[in-house]
Amino acid sequence: MVDRTLSTWQGTRTRDPRRLTLGSAQWGMAYGIANRTGPPNLGELDRMLTLAREAGIRSIDTARAYGESEARVGRALAGHDDWRVVTKLAPDVEAPGLELGESLDRVAASLAKSREALGLERLPVLLLHRQAHRHAFGGKLWRTLMAEREAGRIGQLGVSAANPEEAWAALDDPEIECLQVATSLLDLRLYRQGFFPRAREAGRTVYVRSIYLQGVAHLGPARVPGFLSPLAAPMRAIETFAKELGVRPRAVYLAFVRELPGVHPVLGCETVAQLGELLRDWEDESIDGAQLSGLIDRLPTAEAPLVDPSLWPRREASGPETPRATFRPWPGLAPS
User: Fold this and answer.
1) What's the rounded Cα separation, in Å, for the pair 194 and 294?
2) Does residue 14 register a pLDDT over 60?
């Protein structure tokens, strides 16, 4: 059954850029299946942040696992203390065979390195990069983080969920204040399960990543790699819908998350031009919730191997949720 809860924000509030969060994974490492430019230089970062600030954006997403991202964010935001930085604990703080003492040392080191790189004594939002760490060592890692929060060195604590099961587990956990989840028109699992209105009712802060499925949506149906070929049909339906409305397909993908109740979409970009296009798409009034509901009714619910990058073939996978994988640009592919 389709969750018809689009457009719960009314009028211009739906399109308020203050809801947006800049994604910085591609600032510190090669990231995204359609990324042909690589990490932006410092000048480009400064121009992006200036444009974001002028638009009203004051939130940025990063992580220990995103290569040089934290350090670059820290340098770019130096002297600007009005940004809300969302970062994530290192994913290797717990591993098979690791003793509690060693794990706690890794937690302390991860926090210290994040604070140093970002130039912040207090981390506004800290997420676990692995949901399993919530209960590691009987919850002792989590209690360490809660103590840091009580001491004023962390603001909100939460979890980055890798799949719908983890997202629901986090939502049912009263100690988790905020979540980061993946959803898109190509990955409707959480939407059809009614996750987003439930999260809003529970008062949780929800950041939504992978709006374009790590760049797959930018390739277009004719250029998706073979192992993702079942996504070509829904992508063609989205392209047809966009053509009928006279907008680009990327605007349709963005409109979907824009209309979800109360979420904060994470927008990753490598250039000022890309950010400018995304902001124009965000404010475009050509698409409304009722129109989108009709499109969504025709789209399938994709299986996990298609929409979970951690399950993609190792040599082709990429992204912050799979830091062990190495991205190599697809020959001949570029953003549409």
Assistant:
1) 17
2) yes
